[in-house]
Amino acid sequence: MPDARTRVAFLLPHFQPGGAERVVLNWLGALDRARFDPHLLLGRVSGDFLDLLPGDIAPLRIGARRSLWRSFDIGRQLAALRIDVAYSATNAMNLAMLAAPASQCARIISEHTTPAAYLAGAKWPWLRKAAMRRLYPQAAAIAVPTQAIAAELKALLGRELPVRCLPNPVVDDCAPPFAAALPRSPREGPWQIVSAGRLVREKGFDLLIGAAARLVRCNRPCALTIYGEGPERASLEAQIAAEGLGHCVRLAGHVADPAAAMNGANLFVLASRREGFGNVLIEAMHQGLPVLATRCGGPDSFIVDGKNGWLVSPGDAQVLAARIENLLADPAVLSSTVGAGRATAAQYGIQRSARLFETMLEGLVRR
Hints:
Number of strands: 13
CATH architecture of the largest domain: 3-Layer(aba) Sandwich
Number of helices: 14
Order of helices and strands: EHEEHEHEHHEHEEHEHEHEHEEHHHH
Strand order of the largest sheet: 3-2-1-4-5-6-7
Helix content: 25-40%
CATH class of the largest domain: Alpha Beta
Number of domains: 2
Shape: globular
Structural class: alpha/beta
CATH superfamily of the largest domain: Glycogen Phosphorylase B
Strand content: 15-25%
């Protein structure tokens, strides 16, 4: 008997840890297999997230290495797999999929960061912008995590677009959260501060390390642990050594379960210069951990300063250090945001997000 399930393909450049990759990983695990048959197509079959894939997902490599030919390979593979709906993430993969030879599948592209921030650092931004204006309106849907990204896309491209705002699938709806430790006073030991993300300049880990250095110099003992890997590791290690922080700042590398690694900390800090959303903040809030983030785009969409977390201006290590000191010096104020933080995190459950995504898929297939 023929398989009547909707065949869904997810297209990514690789499967290294990242926000878009985490979204796809969680949807792959949560999609209803009675109704959907998911597939994963990668530019490079590499990345730590490969070890976390469901057992029925065998990643396939998109054939051509050169971007010029990638669209033809995408079109050929979508046809060979008889894909009904294809979903892509990252600007380059979005453009490649939309430029693929015509097929019968509906195509969903996604943006996980603001296009202006992305284009500011992209090669040939004028050419990419022109390609986006030409190709993005052809998408059956454009999935974004925040209304801010949706509004910026429409303004950038100067036309109405089929934008769908979907909550990121971040936390396990069914698993009970860990009980976070109460903030402690300096006399009980150093403040335990954690952060996580890819070690790239945009994440602002150099600013967070600079803030830790200021706290130590002001006799405010702290222990900072940063989870993640990336190209900035060597420069961050050099900064830690130059500041004499080897005893209290640690680059802990990638962890499969960052939420569990946060357990026992006093404060999660995200010091990004720009951020499309901020999945790690939701994970920390779910664990009952107070969070402090910069006003860098994504966190502004779900954190209300003093209600469910705390916000500070981006790009200034001194301002960041002062806010960390003020918060950790007053445990009662700091912990006052925990309940509202957990309520916010509940809106980004994996199962809830997957059901909304499935509804979109079914609507596109019927159309």
